[in-house]
Amino acid sequence: MIIPVIFLFVFSGNIVFSQETGFNYTVKGQYGLIANHHPLIRYIARDRIKAGEFCISKQLTGKKDWHIIHRFPEIGVGTYFADLGDPDLMGKAYALYGFLIKPIYRKEFFSFNYQVSAGASWLNAPFDAETNYFNGAIGSNVNVYFNLAYDVKFRLSDKIKLFGGIGFTHYSNGAWTKPNLGFNVITGTAGVTYNFKNNNPLLEKRNIEQPEKLLKYELYYAVAFNEFRELDKGKYFVSSFCGDVLKKINRKNLIGIGIDQFYIESNDGYYKGNGEPDKSDRYRTGLHFTYEIEFNRILFFANIGFYVIDNKLYNGRIYDRVGIKGYMYKNLFGVVALHTHYASADFIEWGLGWTFCGKTNK
Predict the structure, then answer these.
(1) Residue 191's beta-bridge partner residues?
(2) Which one, of 183, 99, 98, 176, lies nearest residue 142 by Cα?
(3) Burial class for 274, CB neighbours closer than 10 Å (0-12, 13-18, 19+)
(4) Looking at the domain that runs over 215-355, which CATH code has it been given?
(5) What does the pLDDT look like over 252-309, one tens digit per residue?
(6) Cα-atom radius of gyration of the chain, to the nearest Å?
(7) Which pick of 81, 198, 274, 351 has the fewest CB atoms within 10 Å?
């Protein structure tokens, strides 16, 4: 639930809605498959995926500078339902999410767009040691929901749009409960959008000054909990301390470098049955490259890093992180991020941070 709340909280105080445009109501159908990213997935995911969505969104018309910078995107909330195949083994998935649609190319009656959605999902048939032990992909009912989609929209009138495209959906609990191979779903999509007032609003265009390319300094502290293996029901504490130096290369994109200090109690699990663990193996230090894209007071970011201090390299030397930051008050931001090793989720970070220099788009 946290991601839709972030979308609504951060955007609500910074968007001036035009009452003449109304809301967009979208119904979408999906059909596809679960990607075979692991031998177990290949065995259990044999059926095609059928899914549907209902969304409510708002076209941004240029009242804020960042609307123009991002080619007048749409923001909104949506609900999702999917039949994952075998009702006993795979079950069904439900999700509530916030989303943003950004045009890549736009003409009067045509647009090519991408959509980023994030939220919480409920899967009704997770792994159970007694009743569903074949589902080694998902270990909990509650999971993160993430979707990246591309579509082509055709405007039939001022009220109706038709669209079709392709989407990628991911479910994961960040190793909160093992197993956690996760599901990666690839689908074709088609749908219709209806607006009771006007689906073709007047977009306010004006020149925007180039930002000063100042350095930006960020620090945040985050915590997480994870498990080591199936049937090991103890939760391990994880903490992260991250510092970044970024440079704004244009009105919306930033690149930079950073350092991470991790404390990961689940590293003790590698020693079970093999003597007493060395507490120093809980600490890892890494360096990473980072990319951020700003949408007003929300930032999406991605890191790729490598451990420079790690006694055992249990998961290899390379790690990844993708997440979202939302400014809550002045330079104070909240952060939610997924930490992974080679597409295998390790934990989900929840934290707070502070920006010491630099400004978000107005």
Answers:
(1) 28, 163
(2) 176
(3) exposed
(4) 2.40.160
(5) 899 999 999 999 988 776 655 555 667 788 899 999 999 999 988 899 999 999 999 9
(6) 22
(7) 274
Cα–Cα dist 125/127, whole Å: 7
Ramachandran angles phi, psi of 162, nearest 5°: -110, 150
Give the CA count within 13 Å in the CB-facing half-sphere of 179: 18
H helices of 20-79, where? 39-44, 65-69
| Token pair in block for residue 88 | 């006993």
Give the span between the Cα atoms of 241 and 156, in whole angstroms. Answer: 51
| Phi, psi at 66, each rounded to 5° | -70, -25
Separation between Cα atoms, residue 117 and residue 82, nearest integer Å: 15
The conformation of residue 174, written as its DSSP 8-state character, comes to T
Provide the residue type at 183 as one letter. Answer: F
Residue-wise pLDDT tens digits, 74-89 = 999 999 999 998 888 8
**pTM for this model (two decimals):** 0.83
Please report, as a single letter, which amino acid is at residue 202: L
Nearest CA to 146 out of 353, 345, 13, 361 is that of 345
Q: Is the peptide bond before 179 cis (omega within 30 degrees of 0)?
A: yes
